[in-house]
Structures are given as structure tokens and as C-alpha cells.
Amino acid sequence: MKKSFILLSLMLVLFIPTKAQLNNTADEIETAKGTLTIHPILHGSVVFEWDDKTIYIDPYGGAEAFEGVADPDLILITHPHGDHLHIETLAALNTSNAVFIVPQSVADELPDEYSEQLQIYSNGESTEQLGVSILTVPMYNLPEEEARHPKGWGNGYILTMGDKNIYLSGDTEDIPEMRALTDIDVAFVCMNLPYTMDIYQAASAVVDFEPEIIYPYHHRGQDIEEFKTLVDVAGKEIDVRLKDWYPED
Fold first, then answer.
1. CA separation for the pair 43, 60 (Å, rounded)
2. In whole angstroms, what is the distance from residue 80 CA to residue 38 CA?
3. What is d(CA 24, CA 215) in angstroms, rounded to the nearest whole number?
4. Can you name the residues that pair with 48 across neighbouring β-strands?
5. Does the pTM of the predicted model rise above 0.85?
6. DSSP codes of every residue in the chain
7. Closest CA to 97 of 73, 116, 129, 76
8. What's the rounded Cα separation, in Å, for the pair 9 and 199?
9. How far apart are CA 21 and CA 14, in angstroms?
10. Is the peptide bond preceding residue 103 cis, with omega within 30 degrees of 0?
11. How far is CA 15 from CA 2, 9, 201, in A?
């Protein structure tokens, strides 16, 4: 599959897209229970507002990155690496009313002051919090014996809000569990070497599981314009949305 995407990349000389003007303004998606507002924040951090709830994913970048966004009701953290579990950012935010959804590896690293707010889940478990259904899914590197992110150490997440399923990859490589996903309306997929995967693996996987909307995130140093082209050339009806996840750059 990767070879086919390398061949597709050679077609770029015949397919010259308009250069995207990136921004990190919020997007709105209608669900069966009101509007889901998506706020791209920084790197692997994103905020969802839905049904009068505010959900933070891997908050990172200091309080200033979250200016203008409501305090969190839910915080989901994928794994303990410092660009996902960022203690300084958590300390700078008002998290006093938030429920934390985390794997055990994150719980082990969080200060004691958060202990009563934690709910700990392993891959394949589910919960409902404040009307949001949450399923934890694998995120890991291949080959497993050399993994920076071992299987079971962190969580990807699928959130269901109204009738929309939102997938958050966390730090993962091109794993079979991702390719096997179905009925994903919105996906956030990482792509940065050497920690996760390249744009060819990511595009190939996205074309396989066919989300309606895909946001490449956690992509510092990768060519997301080319990622979009690879997905577009495959001919699937997938809306690739490019945002400015690195405004400081």
C-alpha cells in the first residue's frame, strides 16, 4: 500500500493544487444534538465545544494557547510524553471542574492534586461522561519491540457526540486497528517522523478507513499539502482540512 502512495506522489507534476492559506479558526459541524465547534490549538491539542460542554484533548502550549476558550469540563490525555501530558499547561488552566480520562501511564505521572478527578481506562474500554460516549483505542509504533509508544501504554480515543464519531489518533503509527476503523465522521491523524508515521503511511491509512473529514495534526516538519494531495488523488470523498497547528512558526 505504501508503494502505491509513493507512485501517486509522482503524479504531483500533473496535479498542482492551490497553496492553502492556513488558519486555526474554529470549524463548526452539525450533529443530531446541536453544533460541534472544533478549535485547533497547537500540535496535538484540540478543543471541542458541544452541548454546553468543553472538551480538551492533550492540552499543551500554556494558558495563552487557550485564550478565548471556555474552561474544560472533560480533559482527555493520550499518553505521558511532554507534548501531550504537559503539567505546566494543566497548572496554568482552570481544571478544577474537569473530569480527566487517561491511561494508567498518565495517571502515574500526574501530581496528586488531580487524583480525585481521574478516570483511568485501558485500550478497548468505554465510558460515557457528560453525554459524550468515549471509546479508548490502541495507539502504538511498529515494530513493537522498538516502539517509542508501546502498545497499551497510551490511548487513542473515539468520541461520539450526537450522531458524529470523532477519532483522535494520539501518537500512533500505521497500525491495523486504525485501518479497521469504520463510521468515522471526523478524524485527527498524526504524522511526524521519527515518532509516529510519514505522510504516505498516514494518507494510505486514511484512504482505507475513509473518514468524512480528516484533520492532519501533530505534523511538525511534514508536508501536509502533499498529504492532502495524496488523499485527494485516491478519489475518495474525504474532506481534508488543513489548519495552522503551529502559529508560532
1. 8
2. 24
3. 11
4. 38, 55
5. yes
6. -HHHHHHHHHGGGG--PPPP------EEEEETTEEEEEEEEETTEEEEEETTEEEEES--S-GGGGTTSPPPSEEE---SSTTTS-HHHHHHS--TTPEEEE-HHHHTTS-GGGGGGEEE--TT-EEEETTEEEEEE----SSGGG-SS-TTTS-EEEEEETTEEEEE--S--S-HHHHT--S-SEEEEE--TTTS--HHHHHHHHHHH--SEEEEES-TTS-HHHHHHHHHHTT---EE----S-TT-
7. 73
8. 11
9. 21
10. no
11. 19, 10, 20
Residue type, 149: H
Residue keyed to cell 492532502: 228
Over residues 37-49, the pLDDT tens digits come to: 999 999 999 999 9
Residue 57 CA to residue 160 CA, distance in Å, equals 14
The residue to which cell 485501558 is assigned: 122
Over residues 80-135, the pLDDT tens digits come to 999 999 999 999 999 999 999 999 999 999 999 999 999 999 999 999 999 999 99
Q: Write out the three cell numbers for 76.
A: 482527555
